[in-house]
């Protein structure tokens, strides 16, 4: 069996990253100019990586699917970014951030990677403050912090409910500086369609100009994928419409392992589905759970009356409200991790206590906070989020409690990477949400921004040099090499095949079918019977897609439907991979909840004796079942325990 080498440095946990940096290979400034690096993606991970590598002196080609890096999906992150500064003097530390992250991920992440993430978190805040990111400040002038799920300290730095936007503007300014200097060449409205390997190493990509429809070849000494996650496999998710897992699937087909694909996060505070014609869902920040209290009626008749429109939530007396998270998890209350809060909401709604017209909603109520703090204070903290909710729902959350329900949000799975953030393909790196490495089976809130910027600013600039140090004598690659020609031919053949199907069904209608299969069988609750059914349904859908999809227009021009079709083909493949992985993992952990494996109290039941590993899936060819390899998760420094948020 193939042995998976994660390249974790030896030595004490707190010294691994320092030891690595002290002994890694470097590239001197004159030689950096001779090396080209492709960075695909311009979100927080991609923009920070491209800016940092450009600043170091490498020649960087940066690809952006949007018309500007400022439109990357990182802009949608609302609540904050974690760091162990301990400004609140409430007991935080690098170790506590590390442990909370490992525990929040239900002990299914690598110790060394997560500790490094916690270790560099403080540098991220310093970097962003230097860039002018307008973090909230307290009276004394220090940066303010608030609490987030899965932690009992306040370590989340924020800029109202616009943290992702402000951090992205900081990264964009750093990127723009390098573009202005000529160190980074920015390609906007380009989408990666394939990875090119030469002699077993990643040496370039095939990308499609989304404005002209032309496919183009690009070469480099290394390729960095920073393209986010694959949550849109579920059709309805909190992700932007252009967020997709296509680049990861392309790398998977070229030999990169796909790790823990079944680990998808359900976010508990999303505006509920309100119709058949939605194309995406809107997230309400987890930060709202700091002051908002989640409840449903205690009496099922009250819930029925609310659903029928005979009662309003404000008609329900305090003693008749079930603040179920506070009841079930007294130590953490409304700030339990996302997977725990999501399952608790589903359980209440499945039991008949859900509200709204569909019964698939619970209340997030700010009445207590407004009474305790005053409306002005609540407005200063969350005003733009309340405004967004009112615009979408046409209800004033200062008066009537918000309605929320869980939705697909983030994917912890992704391309397998080692400690250096390199995939199983030499020269191919994956950073941010595109890789699997830091969040295990469930990501804690405010950790996505932390990982994206940690990877781009403070990890990849070191580790990629270790790879490139022996590449300085390798001349630049011609895109006329047979490998590039063949890759472009294959892409063009795929496009021609899609355009020539001329079937009956639109791309969106088939994507909705995929979404229903995924949510119903590979969603919040999974079991063996449902996962087997999903695998068959996904196989049938794949045949239907490749025989009956209808794509209007031309394959050689601007064509949004063709873009969506190429991504949907990849989403179907990801769906199959997720179902296979979920079926194989006969335990519950974090966001992966197998109904057959739960405690008497309905909590996730891990089986560490059998499943304490990263599942690494290896592509075997079209219509062939993938092979799963295992990277054991050997914990040297912490002891796995049943997660407890009750005491």
UniProtKB/TrEMBL annotation:
The active site is at residue 338. Belongs to the FAD-dependent oxidoreductase 2 family. FRD/SDH subfamily. Keywords: Cell membrane, Electron transport, FAD, Flavoprotein, Membrane, Oxidoreductase, Transport. It is found in: Cell membrane. It holds the Pfam family FAD_binding_2. It comes from the Bacteria. This is succinate dehydrogenase. It catalyses: a quinone + succinate = fumarate + a quinol. One of its GO terms (cellular component) is plasma membrane. PANTHER family: SUCCINATE DEHYDROGENASE 2 FLAVOPROTEIN SUBUNIT, SUCCINATE DEHYDROGENASE FLAVOPROTEIN SUBUNIT. It comes from Parabacteroides chartae. Its EC number is 1.3.5.1. It is a peripheral membrane protein. GO terms for molecular function: electron transfer activity; flavin adenine dinucleotide binding; succinate dehydrogenase (quinone) activity.
